[in-house]
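note to self: the first set is below, dont mix up w the second
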Amino acid sequence: QELRPKSLDIKQEELGDMVEKEMASTSEAIEDAVRRIEEMMSQARNESSGVKLEVNERILNSCTDLMKAIRLLVMTSTNLQKEIVESGRGAATTQEFYAKNSRWTEGLISASKAVGWGATQLVESADRVVLHTGKYEELIVCSHEIAASTAQLVAASKVKAEKSSRNLGRLQECSRNVNEMAANVVASTKSGQEQIEEKDTMDFSGMSLIKLKKEEMETQVKVLELEKRLEGERVRLGELRKQHYGLAGAYEAAEEGEAKPALAPRRGILKKPPLAQKP
């Protein structure tokens, strides 16, 4: 009893209504998330350009694809739940079926809430990233949370479903699609973060004249230091090669001397006599 979620301390006859209410609430949250992402996309196009616009569009597009995948997942899950109730309730009402299987029902409610919450958090994180007030890591964490809550929803639905159910197969396919889209969000976020960080290191537009001059002098010092170090390394490389060639030449000469000793002339072998000259 202590391990049961405190939010589910309701009458069993209300569980059926709560399942439908939570699924509807999740669908509404996802629709709202899609709408907010579209608004963010329009705002990004008006307020940013260049690399930042490219990064924002790529991240928001991947978030939109993820939301569409989640929406299809929730719809398929709802259809599977209706199938489970219809095939298992017998003469009982829908409310009685949910009450009789209260633990399973509570699992569905919890999983549905987790999916809706994850979608909402993802949109809020994306909004902060686009406005440059949030962290890219937040998007990555939210994507992982959505993948986890999706697995929870599939597991909860699978408990009561028939193995041969078409809706169950569709739900599992939707789950794989959600995971793939979540991975795309992570990938686009990481690549976007790298692009922005690389651009920021070369963005001098906000510097004053004095700051620019100071940065220029410091960079010149670094260039001279690196050139001196490079020249030293080149000299070192040349000496190493000279030593290498010298040792290799001596080693090869020694090997040849050992392998091919001077041949002593054989005794008893006469040289070919010279040809007789014509008179």
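second set (the one i keep forgetting abt)
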Amino acid sequence: RNMSSAGPEGRKKMRECNGLIDSLVYYIQGAIADHEPNDKATENCVCILHNLSYQLEIELPESYAQSIYMQRRNTSSNDKTPGCFGTRSRKVKEKQQDTPLPEEKSNPRGVESLWHSTLIRIYLSLIAKSTRNYTQEASLGALQNLTAGTGPMPFAVAQTVVQKANGLPSIRTMLHVSHPTVKKTAVSLLRNLSRNTSLQSDIAREVLPDLVSILPESVPASDIVCETTASICYTLYNLTQSSSHNARLLLSADGLPKIITISMNDSNVFSKASRAASVLLYSLWSHTDLHSTYKK
């Protein structure tokens, strides 16, 4: 677990170690099957996999990168787009969003397991069944890592989490836990998921009221609550930017007074949360059909 935090070279060596990832996944599967999701070894295994999934899209070996992204390259050969991993632009993201992964292998091995639907379902199962905060946080964090990029893999993982594995109810529960870093990681995962336009209606229906309910009543004082609040605002921004319907959901959940209060900054430092709330307000005002409702 310590070694998996040793940076890019350490992650590379561990991903390449024959049988290591497979053994970690095998152990966690056994713990879940034996109804023992709270033991320390399971926590360690999940934390290792969490670390090994960090920057996975960028650090993939060339052989995997070619097979996963070849379809994208072929469809965009006439476009002057940057290479597979060298961009984070919105236009490229929108194009890549519609490019699915090649068909999943039925028996993944090694690094292939890290983004496979089997492991995604294991993470969601641990989120639902474990009461150990570090295990919950690592499972959420692994999914956050896997959905953080802009290529086909992150969007395919997002599709699996939301639509194929029905993961939103488990993630929603984590929004209401008392542990601040678990809550922060759950919100960060939802922020990543909400970038996928094809999933926004599902996410808004399932968790938008919950996101509004956990917004603080004023500008948060602590750094971790401030970051969590900013992530909530940016998630709501993603969900409402192109949808009047979702903006109405936010209104009906009484989110507007909270967002206005958070956007008002009394201190000399313009906090992340205040800035994010201001961006969200600006975006909400673009729905001209809601102006009269806003004024009320």
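remember for set 2: Residues 196-295 form one domain.
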